[in-house]
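QUALITY CONTROL LOG
STEP: pairwise intake check
CHECKER ROLE: data steward
CRITERIA: each record must contain a sequence immediately followed by its structure tokens, with no blank fields

ENTRY 1 OF 2
RESULT FIELD BELOW
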Amino acid sequence: MQETIRTFIAIQLPQDVQDYLGILTNTLSDQVPQRSVRWVKPDRMHLTLRFIGETEKNMLPAVGKALDEVAAQYQMFSLHLQGFGCFPTCKRPRVLWAGVDGDLESAGRLKEDIDAALTPLGWEAENRPFQPHLTIGRVKDSQAVAGQSWPAELSALPIPANSIHLIESELTPGGPIYTIRHSSRLLP
């Protein structure tokens, strides 16, 4: 039996965006009851393009090669923070997120091409529409945050999309530990 790891494909956030979102989550955590939301640590925030899940370690080179081939078809593009939201709704939130805007057309095509490149390797394309966002918190007690006023706008800090990363996610009691297993640069 092959050893497997949990993986996903994402765009990393620049340090200034991580710092800004860290300040935002600290501010928000002071406004809600303690332990009602599990806040994502800023260095663990990223823009997920595709959650892969359990991946056999011997498949990592093939996934890396597929990502290299996709990345070689794309010019670097730019996204930025915009807006705040909740899944499923802000009246009954389960996930709190920072919105992303900018060249969403390129981001959407990149995600579709990643799906297509993974299909011959045994993964099916995702059926849900791509909603680019940065998860900043997971609500543990929705009653405790009911009626909470959330930020209307965020600073439009840039998120350069210059590489895509295959990331291992090791789940631990202290939160996930992320390890980049492969990086593919987009064209300059």
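ENTRY 2 OF 2
RESULT FIELD BELOW
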Amino acid sequence: MDGFKRFLKARTGWSFKVKGTYVKSEGKGQTIELVCEDPTIHSVQICGKVQNPKTYPISKKYQKPETLREHGHLRPRTNLIGGVARVRNALAFATHIFFQARGYLYVHTPIITASDCEGAGEMFQVTTILPEPNTPFNPKQIP
């Protein structure tokens, strides 16, 4: 690949955009690997670099939760948070597929809560408008 030597200088925190082909790995400790050898269809681009690696807050070693709380925008780059995000994605996807296959429709409904946040509780009021359970509904009864 063109410019492969510049990728060998990559450090923790750099981000890449990679287009390649997954193949079965012959190495130990991994099942698949990404191959980028055909310049007509494969590419590797550097999207971002860390300006000063010595001050970059996340290293290759384990990160304490306190460190991650201080640098929330970097949390997805850790193995823990990335793994949790992948599991949540897979579970949400499977749930949607399960219900979609059975004819259900996914609808975002408004949340009705007793909490009054920034005046939102004053926008509408939820009440029982029927005085008795078996009385037919009459819109004129609404105060």
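INTAKE CHECK: passed for both entries
DESCRIPTIVE NOTE, ENTRY 2: The longest helix spans residues 79-101.
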